[in-house]
Amino acid sequence: MILYAEIECFFYEGNSLKAKRSLLKRIFAKLTKDFNVAVAELEYQDLWQRTKFGVVTVSASTVHAEKVIQQVLRVVDQYPELERTLTTVEER
Hints:
Layout: E1 2-11, H1 17-35, E2 38-43, E3 50-58, H2 62-77, E4 82-91
Antiparallel strand pairs: 1-3, 1-4, 2-3
InterPro entries: DUF503 (IPR007546), TT1725-like_sf (IPR036746)
Protein name: DUF503 domain-containing protein
Organism: Oceanobacillus indicireducens
């Protein structure tokens, strides 16, 4: 079972691409370390106020994969510097 999530976010703090990339680097490192998922920025690389990134997990169980993605979303929501605006989750 492969579960894939696309997550769009809006940045409230920071005023540069450097600040955005620094925050995304911290988030991506935490997600890959804590949940063993693959993460990559997909769109808006040149905009400092927006991002869209993908998270993928692979599991033998649908229930386990869904729990992992939900935990990932909770971690993303814990960062006050950004707001999750649109999330799409689908099986691959």
